Amino acid sequence: MKAVYYYELAAVSGCEEARHNLGVIESKRKGNMDRALKHFMISVRNGLFQSLEEVKDLYSKGHATKDDYTTALQLYQTYLDEIKTKQRDEAAAFNERYRYY
User: Fold this and answer.
1) Fewest CB within 10 angstroms: 8, 47, 86, 100, which?
2) What are φ and ψ of residue 43, in 5° steps?
3) Residue 66's Cα: distance from chain center in Å?
4) pTM for this structure?
5) What pLDDT does residue 49 have?
6) How far is CA 34 from CA 10, 37, 50, 68, 76, in A?
7) 76-81: long-range contacts at Cβ-Cβ below 8 A with a sequence spacing of 24 or more?
8) pLDDT digits (tens, 9 = 90+) for 28-76
9) DSSP state of 84
10) Please, which pLDDT band fits residue 89 given cuts at 50, 70 and 90?
11) Helix H segments across 1-101?
């Protein structure tokens, strides 16, 4: 599949959405939950909330462990702590669309 090739190129370059899409392809189309979890964990570390939701879904269906889900939550919290600034908080308080957490 040509899309997978380009997602892989983008993921290696640091595109979280591409990494997430690879995880979706692995889990939904190929049924490879271990590989999907690895993709999702990488994109969670880089702040993609949708991947955190996918890890949660894998956990609820028994494809990920409690430790996996806990690690994903910790990675996402670390990301939020790293990007937290007073200006972001003020923007989030001003308008819901600027909310980053």
Assistant:
1) 86
2) -75, -30
3) 17
4) 0.85
5) 94
6) 21, 5, 17, 11, 19
7) 76/44, 76/47, 76/49, 76/52, 78/45, 79/44, 79/45, 79/46, 79/47, 80/47
8) 888 899 999 999 999 999 999 999 999 999 999 999 999 999 999 999 9
9) -
10) confident
11) 2-12, 16-24, 33-45, 49-60, 66-83, 86-94
Residue with tokens 């939550």: 73
The encoded tokens of residue 88 equal: 């972001």
**Hey, what are 35's tokens?**
């590989």
Interatomic CA distance for residues 71 and 10, integer angstroms = 24
Q: Which residue has the tokens 């599949």?
A: 1
Amino acid at 89: D
